[in-house]
Amino acid sequence: MSDAYRTSTGAPLISVLMAAYNTEQYIADAIISILQQSYQNFELLIGDDGSTDGTYEVASKFDDPRVSVFRFKNSGKAQVLQWLIAEANGELMAIQDSDDTSDPQRLSEQAAMFACNPELGMAMTGNALIIDNQVVAPRGYDKCSERCRSDINAFRMPAHDPTMMFSRRVLSTAEFDPNLRVGIGLDFVFKVGERYDIITTSKPLYNYRIHSESLTKKRSDIKAQQLYKIHASARVRRNLPPQAQSDFDKQYLWQLRDKHNNLSGHLTDSAFLLVADGRRFASLRVALLSLRYAMRGVAYLKPVVYALLPLEISKNFRRTA
Question: Please, is 229 exposed, middle or buried when counting C-beta atoms within 10 Å of its C-beta (0-12, 13-18, 19+)?
Answer without folding.
Answer: middle
